Prior knowledge:
The chain has helices at 2-6, 11-17, 21-45, 89-105, 125-136, 149-162, and strands at residues 51-57, 63-70, 78-84, 111-117, 142-144. By secondary structure, the chain is of the alpha/beta class. The protein has one domain (2-162): Rossmann fold, CATH 3.40.50.
Amino acid sequence: xxxxxxxxxxxxxxxxxxxxxxxxxxxxxxxxxxxxxxxxxxxxxxxxxxxxxxxxxxxxxxxxxxxxxxxxxxxxxxxxxxxxxxxxxxxxxxxxxxxxxxxxxxxxxxxxxxxxxxxxxxxxxxxxxxxxxxxxxxxxxxxxxxxxxxxxxxxxxxxxxxxxxxxx
Length: 168
C-alpha cells in the first residue's frame, strides 16, 4: 500500500483499475494462455510430441495437473506448469498448489518445471517464493519466466535428449 501511495496515477489508470472484475478475469485468462501458447510453440519447434491441459501419471500411479506433458500425460517424461500471474489471489494460490502437487507425485525419472509470469506476483511474493523453494530444493527441475524462455528451450531440449525423446 505504501508503494501505491507514492505512485503517480493518471485518470486513465484509475479508469482501468475500476473497470471491474470482468476485465481482470479476462486479462488473467489471456496472460495464462499466453504462457501456455509460448511453451507449446517451443516444444513444437523442437519436434517433441506433447499433450496440453492434462494430468500426468507419477509415482505410485498418482496423478497431478499439468499444462503440458511430453510426450503425453500417461507416459510423461517432462511435465510443465504454465502459470500467468495476472490473476486473483485464489487463482495464484491454486497455481502454487498445482506446482506443489506436481512436485509431490513426480517420479525420480520425470522432469517437472514451472513457467510463471505476470505482474501480480509482486503482491504475492510468498506464493512466488514457495515455487522458488521447490526449485531451489530440487523438487522441481526448473523455474522460468517469459523473459527466460531461451533457457527453458535449452533445458527442455536437454531433458528430452536425456530421456531419448530426441536424437543425441
